[in-house]
Design goal:
The protein has 232 residues and is mostly beta strands. It folds into 2 domains: 67 residues, Immunoglobulin-like, CATH 2.60.40.4270; 126 residues, Alpha-Beta Horseshoe (Leucine-rich repeat, LRR (right-handed beta-alpha superhelix)), CATH 3.80.10. Helices cover 10% and strands 29% of the residues. The chain contains 1 helix and 16 strands. Strands 5, 6, 8, 9, 11, 13 and 15 form a 7-stranded mixed beta sheet that branches. A hairpin with a 2-residue loop joins strand 8 and strand 9. The N and C termini lie far apart (63 Å).
Length: 232
């Protein structure tokens, strides 16, 4: 039998250490980062970001454009597939900004809340795509009042901007033509039956911490929730 001797044993130890080091390096090698580019389509520029499934883009970048409201990022220019944040790409990707023409604040009616801020009470215009106002008479608009848009049959989409904290009871109940709703990260509570019986509405993304009233997103035909939680 071949005897390795002292030198042979030392060599075995060195080789073992080297192999272990290579194994640890291969196991700890970081996953590749992918570049996420933002096409703002006329809005203020947004720098590209590198991310992956373990290092996602936590907060949604925001662009601005005169006379338009920013309505999120999409993975295609036809606005079919929304980019949900935190966003975890698995390849280099380009996201496109969606814009909605803003409406005059005079198209809405308001009620002054106890904290000195306004809530939207109703809408008198004829737009199918609503972007709720953020200011009226120099004061912030931060809520949607009870029953504000209930039984409105001509609203296709609603963007509730950042800064809004409350959506009242029955606020959008029985809006039969409502398909899309964008909710802000600033939202604190959604009242009972707020989106009840909005059967055409696609699922919305909502912060896990938001307080949901009874049947806030359910309907007579589908008692399940039209929302999925966004975890930070």
């Amino acid at each position: 039998m071949l005897e390795l001797g002292y030198g042979g044993e030392q060599m075995k130890k060195i080789v073992s250490v080297l192999l272990l080091g290579l194994l640890l390096c291969s196991c700890s090698k970081a996953a590749p980062l992918y570049e996420v580019s933002f096409v703002t389509l006329g809005g203020t520029s947004v720098a590209s970001v590198k991310a992956n499934e373990t290092e996602p883009i936590e907060l949604q970048p925001v662009s601005s454009k005169p006379n338009y409201a920013f309505a999120g990022w999409y993975e295609d220019v036809n606005y079919v597939t929304p980019a949900v944040f935190p966003y975890s790409p698995n390849q280099d990707v380009t996201l496109y900004a969606k814009w909605i023409v803003t409406l005059s604040s005079s198209d809405f009616s308001y009620v002054l809340k106890e904290n000195g801020e306004y809530a939207v009470v109703s809408y008198s215009g004829n737009s199918l795509n609503l972007v709720l106002p953020t200011e009226y008479e120099g004061r912030a608009v931060t809520g949607v009042a009870n029953n504000a848009f209930s039984f409105t049959q001509s609203v296709y989409s609603v963007v509730i901007p950042e800064g809004y904290t409350t959506i009242g009871d029955w606020a959008f109940a029985d809006c039969d033509d409502l398909n899309y709703v964008t909710l802000p990260d600033s939202l604190v509570s959604v009242g009972m039956y707020a989106f009840y019986d909005c059967d055409r509405m696609a699922d919305v993304i909502i912060q896990e911490s938001v307080s949901l009233g009874e049947n806030a997103f359910s309907s007579r035909s589908s008692p399940g929730c039209h929302c999925s939680h966004k975890y930070n």
